[in-house]
Design a protein that fits this description.
By secondary structure, the chain is of the alpha+beta class. The protein contains two helices and seven strands. It has one domain: Alpha-Beta Barrel (Multidrug-efflux Transporter 1 Regulator Bmrr, Chain A). It is globular, with a radius of gyration of 16 Å. This is DUF5085 family protein.
């Protein structure tokens, strides 16, 4: 299990926001792929999403799905769909889920244990970057560090 402390930076993003069951997270990417086709904008990097637990609803999470594109876009925005110039998080714990982890919650639990050992305070929000490598999806999980020493 390789865990790294890294920044997380992505630019020129189309964002789709929704609340859905955790096990249906892949449907958010279907929406972005539809936008890609319908609007003629094309991704130039991996699709990714953020998720936060939905209060009083253990089966549901608040998701933000992101598609990086080459340039800023103007267009119709609404409460579900908009453009984000940049996400820049200077300090995260990252783990490649492909390291034989069963699911997102096991990755989150391992990163929380590491954070506790180093006295880091982690955000409730997780970012999951999904990279397609020759038909296999590799998922990197990033969790922002809200406080803790930089040199640990």
């Amino acid at each position: 299990m390789k865990v790294e402390r890294l920044p997380f930076i992505m630019k020129n993003l189309i964002r789709y926001k929704t609340v859905m069951k955790f096990d249906e997270w892949d449907k958010g990417f279907d929406v972005l792929r539809g936008i890609e086709f319908k609007e003629g904008v094309y991704k130039n990097g991996p699709l990714f999403f953020s998720m936060v637990d939905e209060e009083n609803e253990p089966k549901y999470k608040t998701f933000e799905f992101f598609m990086p594109i080459s340039y800023p876009v103007d267009g119709e925005q609404n409460e579900f769909l908009d453009f984000v110039d940049e996400i820049e998080i200077s300090d995260t714990l990252m783990m490649r889920q492909a390291d034989n982890e069963a699911d997102f919650s096991s990755v989150r639990n391992k990163l929380e244990k590491i954070a506790e050992e180093h006295k880091y305070q982690l955000s409730n929000k997780s970012f999951c970057v999904c990279t397609d490598i020759y038909g296999e999806i590799i998922i990197d999980v990033y969790i922002p560090i809200e406080s803790g020493e930089k040199n640990d």
